[in-house]
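note to self — DONT lose this again. spent like an hour looking for the file last time. sequence + predicted structure for the chain T wanted, 114 res
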Amino acid sequence: MNGPIVWSWSIGFTLLGLGLVTLLTRSFFLLPEREWHLPSWLRRGLRFAPLAALTAVVAPEVLMSQGQLIDTLRDARLYAALAGALWYFLRRDILGTIAVGMAVLLPLRLGLGW
């Protein structure tokens, strides 16, 4: 952007609308006077939401490079993710998972230049 940002009414109304939508959606669960009871099938399904969100963030970072699937096994991220997953399934330790993944990633990336 080379020039100054020009303020217009459309920008102001857009920001105000986005703020109101955000306020409404975040306070939606605070507005009812009585507690909501979720069906058991929905409660069971929501248990997997954090895992699904984490997978959606981590999998593309590990399996893709510059918008394309990686086409070589010479990628340090694959081995770091595999070592971290193996550590987690054996020990169930989050901090150890991160440490093992980084202990594999850094030598491969810095030492071998992968």
